[in-house]
């Protein structure tokens, strides 16, 4: 278990068609296509593009081909049938709300290309492979030699010579080298200037007449760069929402969803972050980061408990408060209010120190039970919560 948990604001994931629009702005060769919300619309678009077309499910998850979310359509009945069957389909828990209708490309070879950030190397990492169209993780496992990596210094950037050497190292078709180099330089530009955390093309294809085309697009934008990209706003409506986060944000709470089983509540971002770490050090993992803020009132605490209680993954709750402006008895008031308001599913461990902690602890004493316990210290509280989460309900 890592002692530190990364807590960062959610990144912006683009749907394939948004990713392709993003790529097109940087001159990358994407196939002509449009989004359809209904079979009739799909038919009109296909008429305009000319057959054959591909009908592609637009969801924030890969593996659509295998799931039946991508179909070739050679004529009008086929485009209607394909769209009917794909719309509303469930792919890995994502419901298909729209499809991309795209001019079908002919494929001679499928490659893979991506850029991400290699934090430990403090460089951008480019990955290129002649074995595209399948999951790159599987390729890395079965045929690691077919993967060529470049680490790019963000100040120096990717030069044409670098890109040429990279294409050669990946043993891509030499006849298409010029075009591939051009595409990789544009992909790099999109990655850097577009403030992306990830740009991935899988597959990047070669057509039978030797042209290079972007057939799929996976783009994750860095939400921290939003201030210089007003165009990001258009992506908000289609973001997969973490319902826990929406519920928390409406209540004015600083909340970030995580994957563990210990619900965490603390006052102040610093304390909340260390609480998440202490839970990890105790051998557990936090279900969330939640800061109720420096001046939280009883209602804020009750709201925080409600949000956490609604997370089915939570099996124990650790409330870690160091009273400053927030007074101990106000925190306890909030906890008692929450207990009256909602049926808590998980036991609560409370560590209460700082301003008026004594009063708070005295107030809560009559209500202590197997569902509500006091801990003497932060590590003891974390250990107890982890133990309870492990023990299950
Ligand atoms: P993913 O399964 O979610 O990664 O979706 P992709 O967009 O990568 O499509 C999956 C596969 O469908 C690709 O690897 C191609 O083999 C195939 N495919 C997608 N678009 C086309 C196309 O225009 N023409 C042809 N012939 N095959 C396509
Ligand atoms: Mn793909």
Key phrases:
binds guanosine-5'-diphosphate; binds manganese (II) ion; alpha+beta; seven-stranded antiparallel sheet; 393 residues; four-stranded antiparallel sheet; elongated
Describe this structure in words.
The chain is an alpha+beta fold and 393 residues long. 35% of the residues lie in helices and 25% in strands. The protein is built from 13 helices and 19 strands. It has helices at 16-25, 39-49, 76-86, 136-142, 160-169, 177-193, 233-236, 243-250, 269-281, 298-309, 328-341, 357-364, 378-391, and strands at 12-13, 33-36, 53-57, 70-73, 90-91, 94-95, 99-103, 109-118, 123-129, 147-152, 196-206, 212-214, 218-221, 254-257, 262-266, 288-291, 316-323, 348-354, 372-375. The strands form 5 sheets. Strands 1, 8, 9, 10, 11, 12 and 13 form a 7-stranded antiparallel beta sheet that branches. The protein has a 4-stranded antiparallel beta sheet with strand order 2-7-3-4, with helices on one face. A 4-stranded parallel beta sheet has the order 15-17-18-19, sandwiched between helices. α10 (298-309) crosses α11 (328-341) and α11 (328-341) packs parallel to α12. The longest helix has 17 residues, at 177-193. The protein binds guanosine-5'-diphosphate (GDP) and manganese (II) ion. Manganese (II) ion binds at residues 62, 202, 216.
């Amino acid at each position: 278990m890592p002692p530190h948990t990364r807590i960062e604001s959610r990144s912006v994931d683009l749907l394939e068609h948004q990713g392709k629009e993003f790529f097109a702005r940087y001159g990358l060769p994407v196939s002509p296509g449009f989004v359809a919300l209904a079979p009739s619309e799909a038919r009109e678009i296909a008429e305009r593009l000319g057959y054959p077309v591909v009908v592609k499910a637009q969801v924030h998850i890969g593996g659509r081909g295998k799931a039946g979310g991508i179909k070739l359509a050679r004529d009008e009945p086929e485009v209607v049938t394909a769209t009917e069957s794909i719309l509303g389909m469930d792919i890995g828990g994502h419901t298909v709300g729209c499809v991309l209708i795209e001019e079908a490309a002919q494929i001679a070879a499928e490659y893979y290309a991506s850029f991400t950030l290699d934090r430990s190397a403090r460089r951008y990492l480019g990955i290129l492979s002649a074995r595209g169209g399948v999951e790159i993780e599987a390729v890395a496992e079965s045929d690691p030699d077919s993967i060529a990596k470049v680490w790019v210094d963000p100040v120096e950037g990717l030069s044409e010579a670098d890109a040429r050497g990279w294409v050669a190292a990946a043993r891509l078709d030499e006849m298409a080298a010029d075009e591939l180099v051009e595409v990789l330089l544009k992909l790099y530009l999109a990655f850097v200037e577009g403030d992306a955390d990830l740009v991935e093309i899988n597959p990047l294809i070669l057509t039978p007449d030797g042209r290079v085309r972007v057939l799929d697009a996976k783009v994750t934008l860095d939400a921290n760069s939003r201030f210089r990209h007003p165009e990001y706003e258009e992506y908000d409506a289609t973001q997969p929402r973490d319902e826990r986060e929406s519920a928390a944000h409406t209540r004015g709470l600083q909340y970030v969803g995580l994957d563990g089983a210990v619900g965490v509540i603390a006052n102040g971002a610093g304390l909340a972050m260390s609480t998440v770490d202490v839970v990890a050090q105790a051998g557990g993992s936090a279900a969330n980061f939640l800061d109720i803020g420096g001046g939280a009132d009883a209602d804020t605490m009750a709201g925080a408990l409600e949000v956490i209680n609604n997370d089915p993954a939570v099996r124990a709750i650790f409330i870690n408060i160091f009273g400053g402006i927030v007074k101990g008895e106000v925190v306890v008031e909030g906890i008692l209010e929450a207990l009256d308001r909602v049926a808590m599913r998980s036991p609560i461990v409370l560590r209460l120190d700082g301003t008026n902690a004594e009063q708070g602890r005295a107030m809560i004493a009559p209500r202590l039970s197997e569902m509500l316990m006091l801990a003497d210290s932060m590590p003891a509280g974390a250990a107890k919560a982890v133990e309870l989460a492990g023990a299950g309900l």
